[in-house]
Amino acid sequence: MEIIIQPTAEAATKIAARLMARTIREKPAAVLGLATGGTMEPLYRELVAMKLDWSKLTTFNLDEYIGISPMHPQSYHSFMCEKLFSKVNINIGNVHIPDGLAKDVPAACAHYEEKISAAGGIDLQLLGIGTDGHIGFNEPTSSLASRTRIKTLTPQTRKDNARYFERAGEVPFHVITMGIGTILESRHCALLAFGKNKARAMAEAVEGPITSMNPASALQLHPKVTVFLDEEAAVELKMKDYYRWVFEQKPDWQKV
Ligand code: F6R
């Protein structure tokens, strides 16, 4: 795992955007795995400002709420259209987001997995992290081999996400999420985490044992993960000075 610690979320986001831009320029028909949530908003603003060519890209979002329509202002469909897809030249036929209104959820999940495979797999998967260590919506105790499926949100995640809804009770209980096994098959994962409420989850994910109690810790099994942190999210990392040292000593050819 490469851990990049920056003084601010803004500085870390700019480097993450450069990593994404490089992927897009090097492989114009790349397959991107996308995430939603507050952490991603400034990243998508940066990417929009870079005026990249999205015309040949294919995207797969990590997750979607079950039971709310794609038109609902808090659906992840709406989030993605508002923050990114309406502002770049993406071919909307190449955009994939789980169907939260699917009649047959297991069949829709299996089909989602088939579409990822048919697209050749994900080149770069963006990830945020929940305060409980979830990636996608793989809550603690999720199987580390899981595939796209239905999950029930924890009360903590519903509380964390209530800020986006008019009333806390409106947050759906269920979601469709790519599994941890699905995420681990991506060729490169980029995880962004900012603020002190992510510090514990990040310390456990990076330096703790691999455990389904912190689903992000499964990323320790992945050969290519880049983690972007601000100082606050890095505060509980025991080896943070070493991670800074590694970043400073990077050979030119490895720099983003
Ligand atoms: C959303 C997703 C989640 C979020 C996580 C952090 O698509 O996959 O794992 O990344 O809940 O959300 P924020 O960024 O709002 O703190």
Itemize the secondary structure elements and their pairings.
Blueprint lengths: L1 E5 L2 H18 L4 E4 L5 H10 L8 E4 L1 E3 L10 H8 L11 E2 L8 H14 L5 E4 L21 E4 L2 H7 L12 E4 L2 H5 L4 E5 L5 H9 L17 E6 H4 L5 H9 L8
Parallel strand pairs: 1-10, 2-3, 2-6, 3-5, 6-9, 9-10
Antiparallel strand pairs: 4-8, 7-8
Helix pairs in contact: 1-2
Fold and architecture overview:
It is a single chain. The chain has 256 residues and is of the alpha/beta class. The protein has one domain: 3-Layer(aba) Sandwich (Rossmann fold), CATH 3.40.50.1360. 33% of the residues lie in helices and 16% in strands. The strands form two sheets. It has a seven-stranded parallel β-sheet. Strands 4-8-7 form a three-stranded antiparallel β-sheet. Helix 1 crosses helix 2 (40-49). The longest helix has 18 residues, at 9-26. The radius of gyration is 17 Å and the shape is globular. The structure holds fructose -6-phosphate. The site of fructose -6-phosphate has 13 residues, from loops. Fructose -6-phosphate binds at residues 35-39, 62-63, 128-130, 134-136.
